[in-house]
Amino acid sequence: MSYIDKDKLRALFKWYMQEVGEILVSVLVVGRDGLVIDILTRESDKLEEKKFIGAFSSLVELVLKKLTHDFDLGTFGAGTFDTDKYRFIFCESGSEYVLVSILNHTALVDDVFPYTYLTADKVSRIIDGELPVSPVIPKVKRDTELEKIKRKMEYYQSKPHSPEYVYKLSLIGDNKVGKTSLAQRYVHGIFKTDYKATIGTYISKKECEFKELGTSVRFMIWDLAGQSQFERLWPDYLTDSRVGIIVFDISNRASFEHVKKWYDIITRVALPHIVLILVGNKVDLNASRVVSAEEGMELAKKLKIYYMETSAKTNENIDDVFEWIALQIINMNIEEVKDTLFDKQMEEGSKFVISSPQLKILNQYFTKQLDYCIGKGDTKEIFKHLDILKAIEKNKL
User: Fold this and answer.
1) What is the C-alpha to C-alpha distance for residues 161 and 158, in angstroms, rounded to an integer?
2) What's the whole-model pTM score?
3) Which CATH number is 145-329's, of 1.10.357.10, 3.65.10.10, 2.40.240.20, 3.40.50.300?
């Protein structure tokens, strides 16, 4: 067995227990041979409980094989097993290990599964040891209606753009379209042909800096597993997304035909005015292309979102996709601040009536004046008038 960083595993277990709460009694990682790799029990003085857990771990492989066969769960078998005292969740964490969560018998497993898959993915990557893994388990539980309204209020009352704020970016699309490759190329600058499939979701962070603007945008990237067995978890993981990248494989028509499904899922649970982009990945396989660039652009036009084509393998347009998204966020924040200022100005001022022809003439007049501006002060004054006219056109004034 290769070296496993048990300090990282223990830190991850603690986060997992914290987020799930008191209903999670113990968590352990078990090898296919039944050997317990590491364990964390909420009440470690219960030696009898530890013995019971160790004995039960020997059944892991047998139980998971049955679950995988019965429910056709594919690569990542997962399922539950109940006793009078406990509820067990088994989740494969890579090909050689299993994450076992032991809950009290009254626990609702559907509430725990989103955290379990996220933890299993992190366990797999800690054992793999090739990429940095944060032990932090973010909150993923779906909001109640009251909480959704509260979050929307906080969103609309949020401050102007700040590089201190982190935006949730969700990478979505079918299995094997290259979502993990896109994320790892952007975050770590690497590409591999043999990435392990994502279990539930994989989270990473990256800051997109604009020196010319003197600001930056920080992303928390949620790389969502596209396998059908994780479908019930997608709404939980996508809740409150500020940005979404919908990815399809240009050499896989089915992945293109499923784009609308992914669009509908994320727009139902995301924040208002989510920034979305459609990405046709794997352009390095152009000889095997079955979806044309024109088709991609046409679909994006129907969905009223932007379209780009990329290759994680050759690094083509990867940075451009994230930079485009970051610029949209900065621009939207600026527009929101401007709209707020205009609303305030009009509340303090007097109202007037203007017809559409008059509005058009004024727009043409002030636009023409830009040709005659000499200094920055003149240009700023003209743009102020144009912004007012734009607000009137939107029925803001």
Assistant:
1) 9
2) 0.70
3) 3.40.50.300
